Amino acid sequence: MNAQRLSERLTRVAAYVKPGSIVADIGSDHAYLPCYLIHHQIAEKAIAGEVAKGPYESARNQIVEEQLEDKITVRFANGLQAINHEDLVDTVTIAGMGGPLIATILQQDLDRLATVNRLILQPNIHAKAIREWAIMNDWKLVAEEILQEDDKIYEILVLERGKMKLSETEALMGPLLIMDTQNEVFRLKWEKESSEWMRILDAINVAEMSPEVQLKRAEIEGKLKIVKDVFSA
Ligand code: SAM
Q1: Global pTM?
Q2: N or C: which end of the chain has fewer CB within 10 A?
Q3: Mutation test of ligand 1: which of 1, 10, 28 has the most ligand atoms closer than 8 Å to its C-beta?
């Protein structure tokens, strides 16, 4: 992967950026995504935010190498602290992290989203945390995608401002993804998740039945039922 040829995962994230956008990519590592967005004339300007020294320096070097200093600013900052209202960022991308971390990054600096009208989020796991964050903060899903690359399964969630309500099933599996239960990657994801839950159930079934274990067992059984019901509907 490089700034010219992105991974399939990041190419699909880029596909949801509207032409002419001002984008902040939070947790940008090599800044491949912002470079790609500028090279392909999708974004007008971009900010690459990084909290770790090594990835921050990689991002800076990349921008210099690509001669994109006039279009992309790299900032060493925690989460949304990389952006200010004057940047007029309208689109935030956060990719390649867990859903709970993405939700925490958003929640920590809600005021910095004042000018933002589109969030393109690609959690590696636990997308549910993002859907729950969105409900609480008045963002609604306008697109969801699931893809497989190198034996890993990724989800992309695109949010715009607005209210939504989700059932427990929709929060777990995605209200838009659930509409296509024939999607092979979607099926595979939930087969894998279910096998993992069953493995945990087997392990806790031999453990002492403390209230915590009982709670965990009920939670897993509930999720297994949700998935089973979706695919047998
Ligand atoms: N976004 C790139 C991608 O999808 O390929 C890089 C993903 S990499 C696995 C996650 C990056 O997010 C790391 O470089 C890490 O330093 C950065 N990161 C984690 N937490 C962050 C935070 N709170 N603020 C900014 N960057 C963060």
Answers
A1: 0.96
A2: C
A3: 28
